[in-house]
Design a protein that fits this description.
globular; mainly beta; 20 strands; Immunoglobulin-like; about 15% helix; about 325 residues; five-stranded antiparallel beta sheet; about 45% strand
């Protein structure tokens, strides 16, 4: 944090700049003058500081990544949320560098990296504050995906010192049936952060794109049934970062008459004995609860594994939302291709 503060306090007019080419000068000039809002004086100083750091080799793309490399908390934020068993264990090696920062009302947000695995977007970012905000801060402002009709969203923010926090967000967009995208167009415009009952408002606006990771899809089409509930495993998407299990859930009329809502969770192991941490991505369903379509994400499958065993537990809920019964369905064994 001290490193960032000292760099932002540099008097740019008193510094002798290293020589750069005319093209590089124009790129930096266009970047700074092209900023939409004049209030981002902090960002302009960061641009200049980055110029000083790397001399004549600077291009606009190095501005924030170069500065971030000097700050310990901005090096692999994902490490604050992961271990070798986590679904994020291969995140850093495959992430797209975003490198954007904006400041408003004493709070600076710095987006580090993002990964789009073909189903979900995962973004890591840091927050630094001029005042102490407490142990926990929250924001309800989600990442928006162009073309999506809705999305599942989860996020987590952790404190690493009195003025610095790191965050991770996961977004699973919902598109019209059959639509797929190769590049995710993302905007994020948080309007406030809440801490200890106090709301701090600001104006931060980010826009970036992330290309889908290269991977392959294995179509499965295997199902299991229990007491009027059917779970169909549709397909498995595999990349170097993650594995996404796509499924559909169906409930018979008799089940829907007795229960207001039916949900399911997946437990997944491979033939080598590994048990995978599974993260639900949400989904969408019919108004009468007759069907639901969703996905779960876990880390990349062990390359030596030849099969997965998927065990679903169904939860039957009453009209007040309380879970009344749970039942374990027969396992589905998928031979990996």
């Amino acid at each position: 944090m001290k490193e960032l503060q000292s760099m932002l306090q540099v008097d740019i007019d008193e510094i002798e700049l290293a020589k750069v080419t005319e093209i590089e000068r124009k790129r930096v000039k266009n970047f700074v003058l092209g900023t939409r809002k004049k209030k981002y004086s902090v960002l302009k100083k960061v641009v200049a500081a980055a110029l000083i750091l790397v001399g004549s080799t600077v291009t606009v793309g190095f501005t924030f990544p170069t500065l971030a490399s000097q700050l310990p908390f901005m090096q692999n934020i994902i490490n604050h949320f992961t271990d070798k068993e986590s679904i994020y264990s291969n995140f850093s090696e495959n992430a797209t560098t975003i490198g954007q920062m904006q400041s408003s009302n004493g709070i600076s947000i710095m987006i580090e990296n993002a990964v789009f695995d073909g189903t979900s977007l995962t973004v890591t970012y840091a927050i630094e504050t001029e005042e102490k905000l407490g142990e926990k801060i929250f924001s309800n402002d989600v990442f928006n995906i162009k073309g999506a009709s809705g999305a599942g969203f989860s996020s987590k923010i952790e404190k690493i010192d009195d003025a610095t926090y790191v965050g991770i967000a996961n977004v699973t967009p919902i598109f019209n049936e059959g639509k797929t995208i190769d590049t995710m167009d993302v905007t994020w415009a948080p309007k406030s952060f809440t801490t200890s009952g106090t709301q701090i408002k600001g104006d931060w606006q980010f826009h970036f794109t992330v290309d889908k990771l290269v991977g392959n899809t294995q179509f499965v089409d295997q199902s299991t049934h229990l007491d009027g509930v059917t779970l169909l495993i549709q397909s498995i998407d595999k990349t170097d970062v993650s594995t996404v299990i796509h499924y559909k859930q169906f409930a018979d009329e008799d089940v829907r008459k007795k229960w207001a809502h039916v949900s399911a969770t997946l437990a997944i192991t491979d033939n080598l004995g590994h048990r995978y941490e599974v993260q639900g991505n949400g989904g969408f369903g019919a108004a009468d609860s007759s069907s639901f379509e969703g996905s779960n994400t876990m880390k990349a499958i062990d390359p030596q594994a030849t099969s997965l065993t998927i065990i679903s537990t169904i939860y039957l809920h009453s009209s007040d939302g309380d879970m009344q019964e749970k039942k374990e369905m027969a396992p589905i064994v998928v031979e990996l291709q």
